[in-house]
Write a structure and sequence with these properties.
The structure holds two protein chains of two kinds. By secondary structure, chain A is α/β, with parallel strands linked by helices. Chain A is about 35% helix and about 20% strand. Chain A has 16 helices and 20 strands. In chain A, helix 13 packs parallel to helix 15. Chain A is globular and about 65 Å long. Chain B has helices at about 5-10, 20-30, 35-45, 50-60, 70-84. In chain B, helix 3 crosses helix 5 (about 70-85). The radius of gyration of chain B is 12 Å and the shape is globular. The termini of chain B are far apart. Classes of the chains: A alpha/beta, B mainly alpha. The interface of A and B includes residues 43, 44, 216, 332 and 507 of A.
Chain lengths: ~575, ~80
Amino acid sequence: MNIERRKFDTLVIGAGGGGLRAALQMAQAEAKVAVVSKVFPTRSHTVAAQGGMNAALANVLPDNWHWHMYDTVKGSDYLGDQDAIEYMCRAASHLVVELEHAGVPFSRLDNGKIYQRAFGGQSQDFGGDQAARTCAAADRTGHAILHTLYQQNIRSKTHFFDEYFSIDLVKDDEGYILGAVVLNIETGEPLLIEAKTTLIATGGVGQLFRTNTNARINTGDGIAMTLRAGIPVQDMEFFQFHPTGIAGKGMLITEGVRGEGGYLINKDGERFMERYAPHAKDLASRDVVSRAIAIEVREGRGCGPEGDHVLLKLEHLGSDVIKKRLPGIRDMAMTFAHIDPIKEPIPVFPTAHYTMGGIPTNRYGQVVMPTEQSAEETIPGLYAVGECACVSVHGANRLGGNSLLDIVVFGRAAGNHIIDYLKENRTHRPMNESSVKAALARLERWDKKDEGENIDVLRQELQRVMEDYCSVFRTEEILADGVKKVKALIARLDNARLRDHSKVFNTARIEAFELENLMVLGLATVESALARKESRGAHSRIDYPDRDDKHWMKHSLYFEDGRVEYKPVRTKPLSVDSFPPKPRVY
Amino acid sequence: MNNLPSSKIYWRCRRGMAELDMFFQGFLNNDYQRLSKTERDDFEQLLTCHDNDLLEYLMGRTTPSESNLINVVTKIRQSANSKT
């Protein structure tokens, strides 16, 4: 087949923190590493992570990894896999120090130790007093980590394919993943990258929802590719809505604001979180706060002319604290809400923030799926880490400060596992030309030149449908309507056409591929949400308001043909006793 | 002459932060076409900056050290303020 080909030991798709951490581990072991990114690597969404990275360093308050593990299991609403959570929490302190040595400028206490701030869902002594566990490089931790990892990768001779879009994975008849067909955005020419292992680190799918905190690049490309490769996606019904996005805009106001003492009020000036979470109040976990805000608005206690938001008050912290600790947040409020939080509260409402579900993996980053032989058979040669993966450390709800930790811990773990895999698999397997042909067919589909639906219109309609039918409040009726509406949009997508058929920098074509990815993941999300008849973490069903551990403490697996199957939660940690499920009260 | 942004410019305005997407998307759709040739060159140069630096410029927290970028940063900020 006439297509340019390149060979590498390992291919990494996505150049955020997870992909770059894995790439660095492999490049330092002298593997020949290719990293493909649809934007320049340091423009990946990791750059936007403001808050920080959890590790039980105990620099501010007493702490240990076991308390961190407890908080993460509880925060996950007992859907997190406890082996992976133990692994992550145990590794955290070491990896913060490792990042510091690599050049990440963590903020300091007066005594020279790394500063740590309080975030929601953190406790001392298994549910006791508030802990302070989040290490931060001012309010640009993600930026610092991403740039440090990128520079280290350049030094280690990782090969970057910047502005290449991944079309599809290539696999053989035995199920081995052989690499991917990618598209050079600048030239419009496809390229086959053959690799002994492929690691997907393409981030989440926040662009499913109209109001979201995510960059426009977050279209779930890797998750959708995996689904098309015949592998199910896990727990897609669990989508975290951040409680405090700027109302009407979606941009994130980090919960570090509440960690510093900010709190929420309704139109009566009531500090309403005291009713919903008497102990943790405004520092309850994100799903609890999101739901509380939504209830306040639904029950007529919202603020503003439309009564469609609540207020985040921080004037009482004083000008000095706001300027010193929260300068980025102040700028954000002034620019996008035209509010100076030193003088006035910020209007906020929940916005789509984080994809808990994704590509099912084990704690080595290996992609797994059920087969006749095993409930978790590994897919040879395929790995996934970060927000696109479901390892699952976040379960039904992610705690603030755990996502940067997740990408660093499992990026490194996957890198190490791939190094071992490469020792056992020294040669490339023969290419499967029919799989290459199938990937190229996806390109050719957009060459049709007759009249048809508009890509932008379909994308906006999908985002609206997902927001209206699959956001914070869910019922059988709403979700069933949502399934029908997303299916109708998918049917219309078949008739969509490009107006621009040029090759060079044809971004309309890239956006068409992104829309295909969003559509399949929209359906996966709403179908999985319809199937789960309980409320757990971020998945809140009005008609099934309680968590149902007897029937639903299990992961969902959505297949491309629409099937939803389930697999058990891994409740056995590596070395300590399990945390059995109990009511999640803050 | 067609002053609309090229696809290449459009793609390089895809950034890692929703805030930058919002600044650039509005500007490309509404005000980019009024830039002079020199300003368009400056805009292209601005796009080579790191996301974090861009956010600081566009938030008005700092100004670019390259003086030729200050004008185009001001125009993007004005565009954002006029659309909100």
